[in-house]
Amino acid sequence: MRKLKVENGKGRKAPEAGALMRDGQELSAISLQPSAGGWELRSVVRRRQSTTVRGFTLVELMVVVVIIGLLASIVTVSVNDYLIKGKQTTARTEVAQIGNALQLFYAEYGRYPSNDEGLALLQQKNKDHPNGILQGDLLDPWGHEYVYVYPGLHGSFDVLSYGANGQEGGEGADTDLVSWDLGGTGENAGA
Asked: CA–CA separation, 182 vs 27, rounded Å?
């Protein structure tokens, strides 16, 4: 703490007590106390911590948002490809299971269900199969019914899933999944 002597001469005013002065980053507090020859000025200097916080500009925030959007679109495209492949794998597996159920039906009854009876006949419960030969719904992963054709054009029967669009033909997610491309299901069965 520094002590300064200030005389109160004629026409001069003493600084006010408690006045604050800035000197760069220093903050000075002045305290005046009367003394024998005038005023005694006491000054306390404290270093002021920098309170300036630099924020992000709008341009910087927009660049970050654009980068996040680009990354999200890349991830979405990659994940979408895996979802399509997963659904197609599930549909192939279910077509194979339906083909196996049709083979079992043929082994037990010596015939395949007619087109009118369809795949629903495989789900009927009886004494030999209390839960039916085929359990679960008869919908492909896209929510469309599996198509059953008897007699088949490519074997004793054909089982098809028309893919995501539910229509014959297509590429990518809309690719038809058929029993005769699964390696034997429905091919030459019962012949």
From this structure: 84
To the question of pTM greater than 0.70 for the whole model, the response is no
Residue ranges covered by each domain of the chain? 2-6+15-47, 85-181
**Residue among 182, 181, 184, 162 at smallest CA distance from 173:** 162
Distance CA 153, CA 17 (A): 106
Q: What is the dihedral of CA 78, 80, 82, 85, to 10 degrees?
A: -140
Q: What token pair was written down for 36?
A: 């024998």
Cα-Cα-Cα-Cα torsion 152, 160, 112, 150, nearest 10 degrees, comes to -30
pLDDT in tens, 85-118: 888 888 888 888 888 989 988 998 899 998 888 8
Q: Where does 17-117 have alpha helices with state H? A: 58-109
Q: Identify the three-state secondary structure at position 155.
A: coil
- 85-181, what's its fold? Glycoprotein, Type 4 Pilin (3.30.700)
